[in-house]
């Protein structure tokens, strides 16, 4: 699915993640685990930040200067209302270039919406945007082989893609990073999260 069309679909349901119908604890314990590896707490960015603000909040509380990125304008409108002092970028991660290096990057349940053919490039881009010892928390499908598909959620068709665990680990190594944690955290659902750290040199 074209990323712009995906963003349009998310625009129509953006309020869900900011409502009482969404579990704001989703991903928080995993972020706390990832933050234990963080040595520097200056700059952070939430890639595919959405509208809930929960990840931005935990990063702010940990002392980071935080930015957000999303392609859905409605998601960003809600996010900006919750955190008016945070800098938000309205952009497509497939085309967007990070303006600087970050000590912590969250890509939680977000970049897997990008086209399959863009997935490897996005992961490389995320790893390359880390400072030395910087940490990335990244989610994907817990699958062995590349694949993609779509499912309906709240009346909107949402696309997902994954390059597979072996390819993810290979890219991490190529980008001078280390996998600190890998877990299928919602078994039997195939939800994979990784804590990735840039080597010091």
Brief sketch in words of this structure:
With 201 residues, the protein is α/β, with parallel strands linked by helices. It is built from 6 helices and 9 strands; from the N terminus they run ααβαβαββαβββαββ. Helix content is 29%, strand content 31%.
Can you describe this structure?
By secondary structure, the protein is of the alpha/beta class. The protein has a domain at 1-18 and 25-110: Vaccinia Virus protein VP39 (Rossmann fold, 3-Layer(aba) Sandwich). The protein has helices spanning 3-11, 28-35, 54-61, 73-82, 116-128, 165-174; strands at residues 43-47, 65-70, 87-90, 102-107, 130-141, 147-153, 156-162, 177-184, 191-198. It has a 7-stranded mixed β-sheet with strand order 3-2-1-4-5-9-8, with helices on both faces. A two-stranded antiparallel sheet has the order 6-7. Strand 4 (102-107), helix 5 (116-128) and strand 5 (130-141) form a beta-alpha-beta unit. Helix 5 packs parallel to helix 6 (165-174). 37% of the residues are buried. The model has no long low-confidence stretch (mean pLDDT 95).
């Amino acid at each position: 699915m074209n990323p712009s069309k995906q963003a349009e679909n998310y625009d129509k349901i953006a309020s869900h993640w900011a409502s009482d119908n969404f579990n704001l604890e989703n991903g928080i314990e995993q972020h706390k685990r990832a933050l234990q590896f963080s040595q520097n707490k200056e700059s952070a960015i939430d890639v595919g930040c959405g509208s809930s603000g929960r990840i931005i909040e935990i990063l702010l509380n940990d002392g980071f200067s935080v930015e957000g990125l999303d392609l859905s304008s409605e998601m960003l409108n809600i996010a900006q209302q919750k955190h008016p002092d945070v800098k938000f970028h309205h952009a497509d991660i497939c085309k967007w270039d990070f303006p600087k290096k970050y000590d912590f990057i969250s890509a939680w349940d977000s970049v897997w919406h990008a086209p399959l053919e863009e997935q490897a490039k996005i992961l490389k881009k995320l790893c390359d945007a880390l400072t030395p010892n910087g940490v990335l928390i990244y989610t994907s499908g817990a699958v062995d082989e590349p694949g993609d598909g779509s499912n309906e959620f709240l009346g909107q068709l949402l696309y997902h893609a994954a390059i597979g665990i072996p390819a993810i680990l290979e890219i991490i190594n190529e980008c001078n990073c280390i996998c600190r944690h890998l877990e299928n955290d919602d078994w039997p659902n195939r939800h994979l999260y990784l804590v990735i750290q840039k080597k010091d040199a």
